[in-house]
């Protein structure tokens, strides 16, 4: 018998898999801890999908992972000094020793504060723009609306980078340079595209390849060798791409609104012209956590998994990389298809498809995060062996508790 969850050979008489604990019979399923935790028969389907994704991307089953536990520190009170010091990482003086790095699942919290702060500024721009009917508020309104969610998701990856060896300054440069470079490479791809016959889904191929090119061009250095570093670099480039692209869509919405109600400022705002902008920005903002940032993080994490501390070479992109890279590419293609976008106005089915694509993307992303945490743990073992060969036994490296 083959376990449907982890695909391990098990004996016919077993009720549960000895490796992953999944139920193998209907009777056992009624008492399975998986069903108690995740509910009904749907959990078996989800676990099976997760196992197949893990096998396809060679990331392994998530161990000790809990969203509730991961985000349990999000709303805990923090002193201003703690918040300020939290960003003081990544330099020669502020990067912690690798032996002091936790290999347990991180508990990010700063990303939520970034989001709420930018959202408040966005709301102030919106209210002021409408109240004063002043078009000079429009650029700031577009800027904050385009950046809010991509920046918050980037900060989440900043917190998942447990080695703490990348500075916030580096991320700001990557957002700008990586974002514009990925737009340029994608624009070149559209100009010479051979996939016009695909229609809108061709964006999944062109833009993901364009962002991959930007990752390779900008992040060829060997200083940062961890998978978690690569995912952070990819998230920064994806955040820049997402913010700049959203600003472009907002500009189109503004021009369309002006064309419909007239180019007089009072007429534009009097006719509810701000809605042309807000609706576009809001629609893209709530979907942003499931798109470009996490997709490019997966891509860059897959590159770093094969590159590590070596200079990049195109021959490093092996089968494991391409299979992992297929996940964001295919998700992006489906995202831009009628199944997710809808023929005109998206309905509940379209939104369900979009959220399912986001769930797949984040599952693979967390799988790569787990690989990154294990890589850090292996590095700690290596350093300890160099310091004292008798201090470390040859035991398998796993994810330690936080």
Structural overview:
The structure is a single chain. With 402 residues, this protein is mostly helical. Helix 7 (138-160) packs parallel to helix 12 and helix 10 (227-261) runs antiparallel to helix 13 (292-307). Helix content is 64%, strand content 0%. The protein folds into two domains: 1-57, no CATH class; 78-387, no CATH class. The protein starts with 25 loop residues before the first helix and ends in a 15-residue tail after the last helix. The protein is globular, with a radius of gyration of 23 Å.
Q: What's the helix and strand layout?
A:
Elements: H1 26-30, H2 33-38, H3 42-57, H4 67-70, H5 80-86, H6 110-132, H7 138-160, H8 168-191, H9 202-218, H10 227-261, H11 265-270, H12 274-287, H13 292-307, H14 319-335, H15 338-341, H16 348-387
- Major sheet attributes: none
- Amount of helix: 55-70%
> Residue ranges: pLDDT <50 for 5 or more in a row?
26-40
**Count the strands?**
0
Looking at this protein, list some descriptive labels:
402 residues; 16 helices; single chain; mainly alpha; 2 domains; globular
Summary?
It contains 16 helices and no strands. The protein is mainly α and 402 residues long. Helix 9 crosses helix 13 and helix 13 runs parallel beside helix 16.
């Amino acid at each position: 018998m083959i376990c449907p969850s982890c695909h391990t050979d098990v004996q016919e008489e077993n009720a549960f898999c000895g490796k992953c604990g999944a139920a193998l019979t209907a009777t056992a399923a009624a008492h399975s801890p998986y069903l108690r935790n995740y509910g009904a028969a749907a959990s078996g389907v989800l676990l099976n999908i997760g196992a197949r994704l893990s096998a396809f991307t060679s990331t392994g089953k998530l161990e000790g992972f809990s969203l509730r536990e991961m985000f349990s520190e999000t709303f805990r009170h923090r002193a201003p000094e703690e918040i300020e010091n939290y960003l003081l990482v990544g330099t020669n003086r502020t990067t912690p020793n690798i032996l002091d790095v936790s290999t347990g699942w991180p508990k990010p919290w700063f990303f939520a504060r970034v989001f709420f702060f930018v959202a408040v500024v966005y709301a102030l721009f919106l209210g002021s723009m409408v109240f004063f009917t002043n078009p000079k508020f429009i650029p700031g309104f577009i800027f904050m609306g385009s950046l809010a969610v991509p920046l918050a998701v980037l900060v989440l990856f900043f917190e998942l980078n447990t080695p703490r060896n990348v500075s916030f300054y580096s991320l700001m440069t990557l957002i700008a340079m990586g974002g514009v470079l990925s737009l340029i490479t994608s624009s070149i791809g559209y100009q010479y595209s051979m996939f016009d016959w695909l229609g809108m889904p061709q964006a999944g191929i062109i833009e993901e390849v364009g962002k991959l090119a930007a990752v390779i061009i900008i992040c060829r250095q060997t200083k940062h060798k961890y998978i978690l570093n690569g995912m952070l670099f990819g998230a920064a480039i994806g955040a820049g791409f997402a913010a700049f692209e959203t600003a472009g869509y907002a500009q189109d919405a503004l021009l369309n609104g002006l064309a419909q109600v007239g180019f007089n400022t009072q007429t534009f705002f009097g006719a509810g012209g701000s809605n042309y902008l807000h609706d576009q920005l809001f629609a893209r903002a709530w979907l942003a956590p499931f798109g470009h940032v996490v997709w490019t993080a997966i891509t860059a994490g897959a590159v770093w998994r094969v590159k590590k501390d070596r200079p990049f070479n195109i021959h490093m992109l092996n089968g494991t990389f391409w299979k992992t890279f297929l996940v964001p590419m295919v998700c992006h293609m489906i995202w831009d298809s009628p199944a997710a976008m809808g023929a005109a106005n998206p309905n509940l089915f379209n939104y369900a498809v979009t959220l399912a694509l986001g769930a797949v993307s984040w599952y693979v992303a967390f799988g790569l995060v787990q690989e990154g945490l294990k890589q850090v743990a292996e590095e700690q073992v290596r350093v300890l062996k160099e310091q004292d060969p008798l201090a470390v036994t040859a035991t398998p490296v796993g994810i330690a508790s936080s």
